[in-house]
DNA sequence: CGACGGCATGTTAGCGCTCACAATTCTGGA
DNA sequence: TCCAGAATTGTGAGCGCTAACATGCCGTCG
């Protein structure tokens, strides 16, 4: 029974108590699963609750317990695959644990917008906030804000004094770069994401570390803004370079693009320039968006388990809310390398 | 001042009243913008509020006013571009109007899951629900559920007795089909979405109506599940057909694919089969996802303003909550045709 | 000059629930 | 048989706020 007889207002705990012939407190005990209630009473109350379609008033509960059981989420770019998946994971995990979540989607993670978002959520009495704001500046601003409740970051980096969860971007980039090196490329070029994104930074660092460890030259960096268009532009530059020095002068035979969407742009630029992928230049992306498997050609990439990331952030947040957290913890999840046709095996260069 | 001095608990309205030397009711009046308060008093109270970092307790307010100012959103597939954008629009609009939103992301829109979601939201006292569940069955189940608050659907069709907002899918499909017919194709094939999706149905209907109006043959329908893979498979079938009858036997020179992701799959299948787009077969999609512009080749598609759709749903919902709604209204937004390279102009067939 | 209406403010009584404690009943062992 | 102690249930007092009414003050009009 979901419906409320529309004329009369919703039944209260007192109504249930009266009908069941017990005190309102006993009803409360039954509903909270308190152990010391006789099976008889419990059954009687439960039946009346069903019959009346009674539902506890969460506002009254929140007032009496001083617990709202509400969490806030602050996110940007929620229309992209990564943030959207993370958000879904956060919401599902929170719901399972008995919390209501409310998400605030920002257009830009300025300090002002962040402050306003935190104020908005604080006004609703959230007990904690998950911030999916992967910029160094945003995380810094958030840390400085001193919100009235615990805040955990997602992809917020490990060097701030805010607890957080991340996928190991550095490792993913390293795996990908090493994959390219072991499949016959003398070095790997890189189209990075925006400089102020922590994810971008970590991917670049992982790429560079892998190259250095292998003792190979680190080519100059190109930068995009995650969009297919910026990837396309970077791709045009790279293609120009390849065509200008046909003898593989720059060793430009493999490109690690910092996300799949930009990789799509790079692929298009290469195709337009008459470069074949992977025969002339291998291309790899990052994220494994659902479309990646159907790119021309299917894209080698690094899969990120965004849903687990979201769930994990809720776990960490609740530790803080419930006071069982020790210090400022950071959780890290491992990514997975997905090899597809865009980086097909290459013969080692002949001497 | 965001931070609460951690040791002591948050100040109450009574605290503010005491410091400002007025009654708590006057503080309440100031905070609610009640007109009958002297400027002097108002200023004094405002200052104390600032100074103490006071924030009204929303639970207490909800209890006293019997208004939670909370809305629920039920959505499925929130990781896709369309639903995610709609969700963002819903949240932003609700926040602007002073409401808190809480989203429940379902894995599947079964009757059971829907019931549970509505129960969950009802338990939190939401005053209304926006349902982004574009299946006929889901909308039917929702209508039968008799939720304890108003429910509006997004893309829920116009034939149920639930108010809703939609983009005009029928018109969009018609525009696209007519575009293809006027650019020299004798007919247009169609890869539809799943049969139980209302959007899919409307797009198919629009396509068929355009063909009939033009007095041309309606080719058999292929069906996918929105995924690139299903598009790929449909594309393989279509390619096989073209190659089997090189003389354009089936008039298969143009395909309208029901969404951009499947179109990506179709494009790949055509490319693999040696068919050129648009020279051999023109391809068009639907949705205008951000990647569509970078497909090989850039995809002609129909742009949908999901954000406006979301905002519009909130407008409608609030009309129902505030009692100003007249009957079961349906709002419709017009889509926009985006012509790109995948349907480049075609010479009229020579006789 | 006194009654009256409008403005500014205060007082009181809940909203529906949980907490702390009190009261009652039931159990088993001396 | 009686009583300590546990199990079960009830009572009263808020949680922090708003709605409704009550009060006091001013100027104004008959």
UniProtKB/TrEMBL annotation, chains A, B:
Annotated keywords: DNA-binding, Transcription, Transcription regulation
Lineage top rank: taxon: Bacteria
Residue ranges constituting the HTH lacI-type domain according to the UniProt record: 11-65
Gene3D superfamilies: 3.40.50.2300, lambda repressor-like DNA-binding domains (1.10.260.40)
GO molecular function annotation: DNA binding
Record-linked InterPro entries: HTH_LacI, LacI/GalR-like_sensor, Lambda_DNA-bd_dom_sf, Peripla_BP_I
Keyword DNA-binding carried by entry: yes
SUPFAM superfamilies, per database record: lambda repressor-like DNA-binding domains, Periplasmic binding protein-like I
Stated name of the protein: LacI family DNA-binding transcriptional regulator
Natural source organism: Streptomyces fragilis
Upper taxonomic lineage: Bacteria, Bacillati, Actinomycetota, Actinomycetes, Kitasatosporales
């Amino acid at each position: 029974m979901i419906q409320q007889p529309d004329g009369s207002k919703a039944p209260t705990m007192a109504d249930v108590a009266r009908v069941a012939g017990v005190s309102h407190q006993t009803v409360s005990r039954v509903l909270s699963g308190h152990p010391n209630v006789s099976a008889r009473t419990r059954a009687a109350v439960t039946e009346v609750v069903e019959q009346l379609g009674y539902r506890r008033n969460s506002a009254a509960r929140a007032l009496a317990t001083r617990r709202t059981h509400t969490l806030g989420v602050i996110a940007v770019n929620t229309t992209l695959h990564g943030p959207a998946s993370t958000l879904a994971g956060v919401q599902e995990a929170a719901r399972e644990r008995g919390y209501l979540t409310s998400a605030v989607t920002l257009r830009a993670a300025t300090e002002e917008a962040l402050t306003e978002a935190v104020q908005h959520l604080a006004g609703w009495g959230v007990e904690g906030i998950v911030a999916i704001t992967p910029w160094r500046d945003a995380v810094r601003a958030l840390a400085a804000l001193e919100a009235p409740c615990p805040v955990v970051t997602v992809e917020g980096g490990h060097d701030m004094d805010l607890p957080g969860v991340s996928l190991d971007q550095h490792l993913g980039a390293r795996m990908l770069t090493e994959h390219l090196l072991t499949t016959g490329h003398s070095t790997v070029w890189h189209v990075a994401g925006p400089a102020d994104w922590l994810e971008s930074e970590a991917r670049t660092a992982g790429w560079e570390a892998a190259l250095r460890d292998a003792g190979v030259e680190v080519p100059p960096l190109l930068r995009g803004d995650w969009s297919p268009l910026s990837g396309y532009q970077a791709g045009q530059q790279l293609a120009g370079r390849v065509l200008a020095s046909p003898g593989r002068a720059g060793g430009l035979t493999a490109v690690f693009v910092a996300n799949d969407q930009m990789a799509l742009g790079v692929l298009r630029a290469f195709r337009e320039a008459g470069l074949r992928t992977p025969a002339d230049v291998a291309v790899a992306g990052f994220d494994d968006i659902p479309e990646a498997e159907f790119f021309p050609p299917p894209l080698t990439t690094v899969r990120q388990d965004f849903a687990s990331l979201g769930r994990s952030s809720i776990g960490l947040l609740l530790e803080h809310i419930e006071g069982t957290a020790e210090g400022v913890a950071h959780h890290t999840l491992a990514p997975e390398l997905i090899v597809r046709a865009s980086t097909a095996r290459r013969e080692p260069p002949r001497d």
